[in-house]
């Protein structure tokens, strides 16, 4: 079996899972482009030096996928000296802002499939914002860079023509990078009387495999999903695909 190389986090002191979607193989040859789209965990602990590093890396736009209360509690404090725009598109707002104190999905795959089915307009808005960033890099993030961020990354990589095995690897490695924080979150939640199921702090590849299967069986492809329920235009979809493939419009 061919070895799959996954992206590694940028060396930032205030975040653990900020990764470039570049470097993944394409089914028809070549690799995805570096410096176009970055996926990330929470940015609220970034230092001024971290923000400057992202600015120098070429990030021109941040799209925050966290819930309203999450974003208010731990805001992305982008320094005014950085030329980085901020946009907020809440995904899974109710569950995350409530601190997991409500009905929980039976698995992460179930949650991701529901996100595709129930939040197509919001996911479409995210893609619209990413497509608008035509020159600089665009970064999208949630709190752990695993779930909401993982679904957006999956759609982008599938759209570009990245093989499923590499999409799964890109998703599943988040657990490795976030392991220390996940352990702390579980202890803190337990001390507060909240029991977080183990699967919610994992990124098992079978969960994203189920999501990909649902995407293919229900919608056909990322392109069909974005053009259909997500409401994006053909021009926007082509921009997303060709930028990640390292081509210009």
**Biggest sheet descriptor:** 5 strands, mixed
User: Could you give the order of strands across the largest sheet?
Assistant: 1-2-5-3-4
Distance between the termini: 35 Å
What oligomeric state do the depicted chains represent?
single chain
Mean pLDDT: 92
Helical residue percent? 40-55%
- The tally of strands reads 5
Give a verbal description of the structure.
This protein is of the alpha/beta class and 249 residues long. The protein is built from 12 helices and 5 strands. The protein has a 5-stranded mixed β-sheet with strand order 1-2-5-3-4. Helix 6 crosses helix 12. The longest helix has 14 residues, at 205-218. The protein is globular, with a radius of gyration of 17 Å. The chain starts with 18 loop residues before the first strand and ends in a 5-residue tail after the last helix. The mean pLDDT is 92.
Q: Layout of SSEs?
A:
Elements: E1 19-20, E2 37-40, H1 48-57, E3 59-64, H2 68-73, E4 85-88, H3 93-97, H4 108-118, H5 120-132, E5 137-141, H6 148-160, H7 164-172, H8 174-177, H9 179-191, H10 205-218, H11 222-227, H12 234-244
Parallel strand pairs: 2-5, 3-4, 3-5
Antiparallel strand pairs: 1-2
Helix pairs in contact: 4-10, 5-12, 6-7, 6-12, 7-10
Please outline what is shown here.
The chain has helices at 48-57, 68-73, 93-97, 108-118, 120-132, 148-160, 164-172, 174-177, 179-191, 205-218, 222-227, 234-244; strands at 19-20, 37-40, 59-64, 85-88, 137-141. The protein is of the alpha/beta class and 249 residues long.
